[in-house]
Amino acid sequence: MSSPPTSHERPAFARRSLGLYAALLLLVLGFALAAPAFRSPENLLLVLRQVSVNGILAVGMTFVVLTAGIDLSVGSLLAIAGLASALFAQLEPSPVSVALALGSPLVIGLLGGGLNGVLVAFSRVSPLIVTLGTLTAYRGFAVWYRVNPVYDLSGWYRELGQLELGLVPLPVLVFFATAAAAGLVLSRTRFGRHVYAVGGNEAAARAAGIAVERVKLAAYGISGFCAGLAALVLTARLGAAQSVAGQGFELQAIAAVVVGGASLFGGRGRIRDTVAGTLLIGVLFNGLVLTNVPSPIQQMVIGGIIIGAVWLDGVVQGRER
Amino acid sequence: MRCSSRARAPLAALLALAACSPSGEAAGVRIGVSYQALEFPFVAALQRAAQARAAALGVELVEADAGNDASVELGNVETLLRRGIDCLAFEATSLDASAASIEAANRAGVPVVQFNGKANGGRSLTFVGSEQSESGDLLGRWLVSILRASGKPSLRGFYLRGVAGQVTDLARSDALRARLAREGSSDRIELIEQFADYDRSRGQAVTESLLAAHPDVDFIVANNDDMILGALVAVEARGPAGRIALAGVDGLPEVLARIAEGRIAASVFQNPEGQGAGAIQACVDHLSGKALPAEILIPFELVTRENVARVQELARRVYGS
Question: A8: which of A146, A201, A218, B131 lies 20 to 30 Å off by Cα?
């Protein structure tokens, strides 16, 4: 099923995306000239590996943002999911413990996201407040459940985090597979069209017979599921889980979505642009470290880029805003 | 003070009050304890030590968690004072903003013992804690010792800093550099610095990027253990550890285990038992009429493979599992 977004948005999309990809290309070329170490293929794979966690979160966040919502709880949910996964990964490897180590973070993510979705869809409390509340509550739960880090995980689990299929690290494959699946869902399914419709104009969507509550519930569920998946990738990569993990990740994910050009008012945004936004931030971080730029300056640059991207968006969109 | 003042949502620091039931014959004495942030394993270990000492002395504890937020801290302390306490054991969240809490206790005529993190302002009986500059000094000594042992004319490595502008981070960094200067090693030990926010995954990402540019470094030092654990994963992803010597600060059980295995070279152990139990003891001593010194300093200790077994025993006791 094909699903063109409302027709007048098309050209602006294309122009905006061009700006984003041009900026990404310029950044890559700039760092390649400035830092020889940046140029190595090994380092480019490293950038992909480093953005995989934020990328997976940003893909889930895109669904929520498209419905004109926000999910601030993903970092806290990631901490709970990571702890559960690591506790099972400490056990003697058996089919059951392997399944639990891999499956529990996804189930927890889905449940945590689903709770957000139920609260947003049915309580009429704004998504900002709901997920600010669960950001706090989920973090509290993680710390209450386990304040000390979980480490000494089974070998198979840690190897998973370092595994490369061909040349491509597994976390990167997971990120790209998630993005590809999400892109297909949004552009090729009825559910995807409904997500855009709910965010574009909720009243019109309701009038058209779309089950708005169910769409919202699903969007938050997907965001939570992605948080669980990101927890799995992060925990396997680090070989340990902590209740303080993921603090501030929600803001990085939102930044990637916004830099990718999605509108926080809903209805506008694409997965491939979110991926580009994630890469742009990842390239910045890696390049600035390689060129030995002090961290406070890095923060200023990345903050400036976020504002600049949205400003550029406004300029290109011109009269549509 | 081990913990960073990481950015977090204000709501994340909800008031958490818990009272231990009085036991033993000295019941009737009630001590209020304000912790900096119980989500950090080190602070949780302080709490465990304080509770154990209180149980041993038969005094009642009323505890509150400031969640690293000075305004929450003040609210907590006011609540404690209203409930009626004989002494306040106070772990400051902030160098300057925490003075308000101490002054509130002063106005209520309740004696104050500061521990672990120390605030400027107000009147307190004593400070039970460690001189943070000492940990940086010990890291500096360790660097000089590996330079001498290496027989090389100079060494080069990464220095992972905590949060830019944070007090503990500055104290450790200044003291490390002062030690290198005093030993005449400043230009023989080259430090490539980056901030990694006291965070494990950030420590991993920063180290990965730095290693891409400087694969041949001799050492990595970090201003806390979480960052050095992240660096260890990054180093081992490129080959067996050992060629690059790693050292952190805290002496978390996980790092002590790595030291015993020879994968991390050293850590500077900070003793939560001395501080947590010492604070309760100081309160009780004061209430029973003993005079207290202005400072009760708990020394740091450099842990290497030689002395790790003894420190591990102590760490197991205070950190629990």
Answer: A218
Nearest chain A Cα distance for residue B37, angstroms: 11
**Domain membership of residue A243 as a residue range:** 6-320
The number of distinct structural domains making up chain A is 1
Closest by Cβ to B209, choosing from A132, A244, A286: A286
Q: A186, A270 in Cβ contact below 8 A?
A: yes
- Residue A50 domain flag: yes
Please indicate, yes or no, if residue A1 is contained in any of the structural domains: no
Burial class (CB in 10 A: 0-12, 13-18, 19+), A246: buried
Of A135, A136, A245, the CB nearest to B201: A245
- For B226-284, the pLDDT digits (tens) are 999 999 999 998 877 678 999 999 999 999 999 999 999 999 999 999 999 999 999 99
What is the C-alpha separation between B134 and B142, in angstroms, rounded?
Answer: 12
Percent of chain A, pLDDT > 90? Answer: 72
Secondary structure (3-state) at A260: coil
Residues B9, A242: C-beta atoms closer than 8 Å? no
Residue A64 resides in a domain:
yes
The answer to whether residue A76 is domain-embedded is yes
Q: A103: distance to nearest CA of chain B, Å?
A: 22
CB-neighbour burial class of residue A95 (10 A; exposed 0-12, middle 13-18, buried 19+):
exposed
Contact B283, B113 (CB under 8 A): yes
Cβ proximity of B255 and B6 under 8 Å = no
CA distance linking residue A236 with residue A163, whole number of Å: 10
Residue that the structure tokens 């104009």 belong to: A201
Q: Which residue of B has its CA nearest to A287?
A: B209
> What is the rounded distance in angstroms from the CA atom of residue A148 to the CA atom of residue A135?
20
Whether B168 and B2 have beta carbons less than 8 Å apart is answered as yes
- CATH number (domain holding residue A161): 1.10.3470
